Structures are given as structure tokens and as C-alpha cells.
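Structure in, sequence out. Go:
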């Protein structure tokens, strides 16, 4: 269901019953470990994929950066120029 590079690739799939009684497939919650990262300042026009390319030479690893920070909405991490976020070391 997920590509090998997806953060959900190894997550267990479960059946969930919705309020109206339908059974749907869902992915179990991922428990995120504490990640030590490199403090990185957000630059003008930064996006998580651009930062991932800069640090890992792979823009699809953007989710490693999202997981290392506490924002519920990952794109909020790059909204404020100058904000310091954590970028995990590989």
C-alpha cells in the first residue's frame, strides 16, 4: 500500500469501524522517538522538501524533518523566516 520510502511503510494496518458501521482500513499510530537534530534556520521560500534536498540530497525525506519537530501541521515549520527547526542527522 505504501512505498518503501514512506514513513508508513512498516506500520501495521488495522480495520476500524466508522460511526455509520462501515469497516475501513487505517494505519496504526506511529510512536515517534526523540530525535536529535541540527538546528537549522528557515530561509526565504524554504519548503521541507527543499531542506531535505539540501541536507540529505533526497527531497522525499522531508518527513524525517517533520517528525523531528512538534508541529501538528508539518508545513507550519517553514512559514516563519528565521525560525529554528531541528533537522535530523543521517
Amino acid at each position: 500500500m505504501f512505498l518503501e520510502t514512506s514513513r508508513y511503510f512498516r506500520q501495521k494496518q488495522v480495520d476500524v469501524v466508522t460511526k455509520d458501521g462501515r469497516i475501513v482500513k487505517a494505519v496504526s499510530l506511529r510512536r515517534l522517538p526523540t530525535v536529535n537534530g541540527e538546528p537549522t534556520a528557515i530561509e526565504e521560500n524554504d519548503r521541507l522538501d527543499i531542506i531535505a534536498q539540501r541536507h540529505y540530497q533526497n527531497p522525499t525525506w522531508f518527513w524525517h524533518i517533520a517528525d523531528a519537530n512538534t508541529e501538528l501541521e508539518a508545513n507550519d515549520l517553514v512559514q516563519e523566516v528565521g525560525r529554528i527547526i531541528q533537522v535530523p542527522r543521517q
